[in-house]
Design goal:
This protein has helices at residues 3-15, 21-42, 44-70, 131-137, 193-196; strands at residues 89-91, 94-98, 106-111, 114-120, 127-129, 148-152, 155-169, 172-181, 189-191, 201-205, 208-212. With 226 residues, it is an alpha+beta fold. A hairpin with a 2-residue loop joins strand 7 and strand 8. The longest helix is centred in the N-terminal third of the chain and has 27 residues, at 44-70. The radius of gyration is 23 Å and the shape is elongated.
Length: 226
């Protein structure tokens, strides 16, 4: 076997692979498992130890992937509201939201006191809740209101309009916020421009979305604010 050529080909493959941490870790774990098989021919105990290390790494990667995907499932909102998302923080009255690994900005919020994750979509006019989040938050369609048609990745869907009593995250609190209740949008919730337009301003700097409310809120504050 030409190990020099094998190493060259492997290096070329890695160089052409997107620099994603989990992907590179998976590749390293697979290579480690293959190395364990080769080492095991010479020293079975050492080979088993190397393969065990590979298995543990792959198991850890699997757990991380599950936690990343958990935010798309509303059943995880109550148990795991913050796992799998970058840490949002408040600095100088502004809420800072780092870009997630999936290329989106995600907010960990409370809707009428119920934990829920929201994808920030500056192209969406209305904030939108899936049916499960709306049910948990006690959000009901407005009486006498007409359904609206919304365009999603899966095509147009019909949604009812309700009013959120309070939606809060970081230093931001919005009360009396209109929201669409769309049972066919999937498990994700969407934070739309009708909330962002209430802010003093928002911007993106170095892959961090910065939201500046007119009246920054804290957990201890009960004063109405947007």
């Amino acid at each position: 076997m030409d190990f020099a050529q094998l190493w060259h080909d492997l290096a070329a493959f890695v160089a052409g692979t997107p620099r994603h941490g989990l992907l590179l870790a998976t590749l390293a774990a697979v290579v480690l498992g293959m190395a364990g098989g080769l080492v095991g021919r010479i020293s079975p105990p050492l080979g088993r130890l190397v393969r065990l290390g590979s298995t543990l790494v792959l198991g850890g990667i699997f757990v991380l992937v599950v936690l990343q995907l958990a935010r798309f499932d509303p059943h995880f909102d109550m148990a795991l509201p913050g796992i799998g998302l970058p840490e949002q923080r408040v600095a100088g009255g502004e809420t800072h939201i780092p870009l997630s690994d999936d290329g989106h900005f995600w907010v960990r919020a409370r809707v009428n006191g119920v934990p829920a994750s929201f994808l920030v979509d500056t192209g969406a006019t209305l904030t939108t809740l899936n049916a499960e989040t709306a049910r948990k938050a006690g959000l009901e369609p407005r009486e006498g209101g007409l359904p609206v048609m919304m365009q999603t990745a899966n095509g147009p869907v019909s949604a009812q309009i309700g009013t959120i009593g309070e939606l809060s995250f970081g230093s931001v609190t919005a009360r009396g916020l209109d929201a669409a209740i769309a049972p066919n949008i999937g498990p994700a919730n969407v934070l739309g421009m009708n909330l962002l337009s209430r802010l003093r301003g928002w911007r993106v700097e170095n892959n961090v979305m910065i939201l500046e409310p007119h009246h920054p809120q804290s957990k201890e504050s009960a004063a109405p604010a947007d």
